[in-house]
Amino acid sequence: MRPFLSRGLCLLLAVAFLAQPVYAAAKNAAKKTEARMAAAPSPAAARDAADRSDPDLEKEREIGRRALAQIEERWPLTSDPAATARLNMILDRLEPHMERRIPYEVRLVSTDVQNAFCLPGGYIFFTTGIMDLLKTDSELAAVMAHEMVHADRKHGLKMAAQSNKTTLAALAVVLLSGGALAPVILAQVAQVAITNAYSIELEAEADSRGLDALIASGYPPTAMVTLMEKFMDEELKQPIREYGIYMNHPDSRKRLQMALEKLHDLGIPVRRKHSLGLLRTGFRETKRRAELTVDGAVVWSGKRAPETRTALERARAVLDEDLQMELAPYDVHLVGGSLYIGNHLVGEPVKGMDSVEVFRQNLLKALDAARRKHPTAKYFQP
Fold this sequence. Notes:
Layout: H1 7-18, H2 23-39, H3 43-50, H4 55-74, H5 81-94, E1 105-109, E2 116-119, E3 123-127, H6 128-133, H7 137-152, H8 155-163, H9 168-177, H10 182-195, H11 200-217, H12 223-237, H13 252-265, H14 273-276, E4 281-285, E5 289-294, E6 297-303, H15 306-322, E7 332-335, E8 338-341, E9 344-347, H16 356-373
Parallel strand pairs: 1-3
Antiparallel strand pairs: 2-3, 4-5, 5-6, 7-8, 8-9
């Protein structure tokens, strides 16, 4: 697939920006909108009102609004209330862990391209393509946190200032002045955001601070790892595809390694099953049997009876905690006729139930099936 923002579209953006109203008119309209927002008892309005004293944020929001209008004219937004509510819930959970109180807004773009990006001032876009790829809230939160950091740390404007060899303050003056250079630079800001064409240093900062936000907000931090692994897998399937978020700049493998090293330094074990939504246990009963399942497949069962149910419930509690995708086959082992994961007892022989050896073989099959759904990871490396 082509990049999310092609060169031709960049040119269209630049031409379109020439027709933007001058700064004074735009600012007056923005002030009226903000005044209406301040009168409404919404969290976003409260944050806007609280940040009126931040002149940099006001300028960033105005720059973002100008780019936002052009993007929304050319790319269809989808009106999916459930998906939008889901993204906003994730956003609200992450927002307190950013440095600045930016009134972030999330929009959903209808396209198969897998991308997410954030304009200056906190306007975040997710594509339906990336929503289809990422199945869990924790992985979506990893993307969201990464993009929020770009806005929080002014990465888009820093890149534009660097490219034009000027300061952030001077860049803002040019962008908001309505002068001849404004449309060109504004298109450049939009292109950097949409294609995620940030420097290695800024991408590393977004990764690191995004991981910090995941941890602080209670999402499984391994989501940052599984996210990068998924994009590496997509690159292998379609090597000519160019990505926005997590494109090879810097190398995806290097960024993955940096995330793994940071988790190691923080003493956080890599446990992929929660961020991938795999190895989920379940319990079900028929007229004659009771069954323990992992990802829908039966792993241990027996004749329906109180002792069977007790054994299955105990086993399920251990599996929920200890059955991890990173287990080696020898970690699931028999000792004296009983089944263990590591040092934790999972199951003992019970009359009327499958043998614990059958239980072990079924667990190994479930682990193998889960790993095949996420094949890029190196599960057994320290």
